[in-house]
Amino acid sequence: MYTLLVILSITIVLFVWGKFPPDVVALMSMLSLYLTGILDIQETLSGFSNTTVIMIAALFIIGEGLSRTGWTAVAGRYFLDWAKNSVPKLLVIVTLGSSVLSGFVSNTGTVAALLPVTVNAAWNAGTLPSKLLMPVAFGSNTGGLLTLTGTPPNIIASNALVENGLEGFSFFEFSLIGLPLLLISVLYFRYIGFRLLPDHRTKNKPMAIDDEMHKWIKNYSIGDNLYRLRIRSMSQLIGTKVGDWDFEENYNVSLMRLKRRHPNPLQGIPQFVEMPEPDTEMRYHDIITIKGDAADVDNFVLKFHLGVLALNPEMGSLKRELINQEVGMAEMIVTPNSVLVGKTIALGHYLKKMGVQLLAASRNNMPLTGKIKIGAGDAFVIRGQWQNIETLKSVYENLVISGSPEALSKNVDMLTPRSYVALGTLILMIVLLVLNILPGAIAALVCAGIMMLTRCVPISKAYKGISWTSVVMIAAMIPMGLALQKTGVAQMAANGLVAALGNVSPLALLAGIFLLTTAFSQTINNSATAVLMAPIAIMASTTLGVSPKPFMIGVAVSASTAFLTPVGTTTNAMVMPSGGYRFIDYVKVGGPLLLLFFIATLIVVPLIWSF
Asked: What is the pLDDT of residues 338-366, one digit of tens each?
């Protein structure tokens, strides 16, 4: 027992210290349990086969699918459009919006999607980002309490009940406590928290796709020499392939995009063909987007009997024409040592080895046209698959790609047919869980598989979308919970809580569990906190002879109340640079909210889950 207490104490100290990553600390703790003989090999590695861990990993993939298909960006745009630059409305919308989104998407994904649009909305409304970003972070933490899958502590608490032969929580059962807490959060920030939020000025503005488009239109004139043409019935292009004509070499125009008149995804005929390959077949009534000088385009239209369609040079139209979840744009700067220096290329042509197209160019802040002999310091706007642009950034050391293409790709607020597949997959998972058709882990795995098979999340990106730090940490901390039970430490802690508070009332015991859990959650990852506290809460309730459900709700809620520090959750840390927050700001703003959550939990929980 004493050996376990030493290991547990060292683990907590290392978590709080933050010198080592939390997953590494958890792994060291897990190995210590085996090396000291507290657990055998099966018990030590049991976390990696635990259904909680499998389900959480699958949920990261599902959330990534919703983010990559535009749902989080679209939701963020609508939330902020509703506010109409009113600061009080903005405050309510960002708190409410982040809460609702995080009920279905990971907290981290929610904040990542809302961060750039919230910063821009703050400036447009004449306020500071520091007045809005902390409500986004705290709102995402609260929103995780709306559904079973909203945050890992919910799943951990539910599975702890199941493992002890009790009934777990249903999918929307957490909303019975989550909705009152959400209402409290919104009212708090609207009437009290806004006055406590600091006025910090910061230059840390995250990249937003709309801002980048405005910049490119102004600096590069990217809408110039861009045309939309329709393939008419007499055109020689009908039935031929793109590679048959070599448009760039023979006609000085570059084919950028093709839109089908009669798309049929089931037959492999998508609505849009971005950056068509040489074997792409052109059909009657297809609409092609090309780039070239006006004279060359006129000759091209006459040669192939094409119809000319209007293309609005405004930002919205260009954005729809040039960017989506698969294809994007970025700014590239050529350094003196680049292999491109001295090469001649026409705008619109492809850098085939790199898989991107040169869309526009600038030298000394002046737009360039026609054929260009590339020099050091030249800046280009490039267009290509987001993945190719990201690869370009990492592979070619002598090219500078501004910003993060990966982050910008998730900031595209447009929906495609694949977006509705992703939404349907989320709805399917909810139905499977609500109706209890499949176990939670299996339902999540099935839906994660659908996300990957339908390419809502490319398989290579699916694994990157999983927060492996969280998954490994939870898996490695589960044996600690087992060790607490096996050695009697959990029972000892439970007896201590019951002796100190149980004689007063079960409500006092609930208060004690809440305060102990929230104390841990301020410095320790909320999942690790839930893993540690779940067995103690169950044993305490069993010792007292009352239902464990209200205490497990208390554990889940209090594990999600890391409002006092920037290190309690990833979301708190994410908003810190852009908001210019200091440590004390979290205490000043989060302290009253934590107190309100504590009081509300003690009032609401016994009314719904009786002792």
From this structure: 878 888 887 777 776 677 888 888 888 78
Residue 37, Cβ neighbours under 10 Å: how many? 8
> How does strand 226-231 pair with strand 306-309?
antiparallel
Burial degree of 486 (CB within 10 A; 0-12, 13-18, 19+): middle
**How many other C-beta atoms are found inside a 10 Å radius of the C-beta of residue 429?**
26
**Rounded to whole angstroms, how far apart are CA atoms 196 and 208?**
28
DSSP state of 280: P
Handedness of CA 482, 488, 153, 563 (dihedral sign): negative
Residue 248 and residue 70: Cα distance in Å, rounded?
33
179 pLDDT exceeds 90? yes
Return the ∠ at Cα 285 (arms to 281 and 287), rounded to 5°. 75
Residues of each domain in the chain carrying CATH 3.30.70.1450? 225-312, 321-409
What pTM was computed for the model? Answer: 0.71
From the CA atom positions of the chain, what is the Rg in Å?
28
The alpha carbon of 137 is separated from its chain's Cα centroid by a whole number of angstroms, namely: 13
Alpha carbon separation from 453 to 414, 486, 540 (Å, rounded): 21, 42, 45
The tens digit of pLDDT for each residue in 558-580 reads 999 989 877 667 788 778 777 88
Q: CB count, 10 Å around CB of 515? A: 12
- Whether the CB-CB separation of 482 and 39 falls below 8 Å is answered with yes
Q: What's the CA gap between 462 and 88, in Å, rounded?
A: 38
Distance separating alpha carbons of residues 523 and 519, to the nearest angstrom: 8
User: How far apart are alpha carbons 305 and 298 in whole angstroms?
Assistant: 10
Cα(110)–Cα(336) distance, rounded to whole angstroms? 40
What whole-number distance in Å separates Cα of residue 270 and Cα of residue 23? Answer: 42
What is the topology classification, in CATH, of domain 225-312?
Alpha-Beta Plaits (3.30.70)
What is the DSSP secondary structure assignment for residue 445, as one 8-state letter? H
Tally Cβ neighbours within 10 Å of residue 161: 17
What is the rounded CA–CA span in Å between residue 39 and residue 268? 54
Q: Could you give the dihedral angle defined by the CA atoms of residues 84, 87, 93 and 96, in that order, rounded to the nearest 10 degrees?
A: 180
Q: Minimal CA–CA distance to 536: which of 565, 571, 494, 572?
A: 494
User: CA angle, corner 481, sides to 480 and 482, nearest 5?
Assistant: 90
Q: Which DSSP category does 205 fall into? A: P
* CATH number listed for the domain at residues 321-409: 3.30.70.1450
Asked if 540 and 509 count as a contact pair (C-beta separation under 8 A), the reply is: yes
How far is residue 597's CA from residue 582's CA, in Å, rounded to a whole number?
23
Asked if residue 581 lies in contact with residue 200, where contact means CB atoms within 8 angstroms, the answer is yes
Over 60: is that where the pLDDT of 266 sits?
A: no
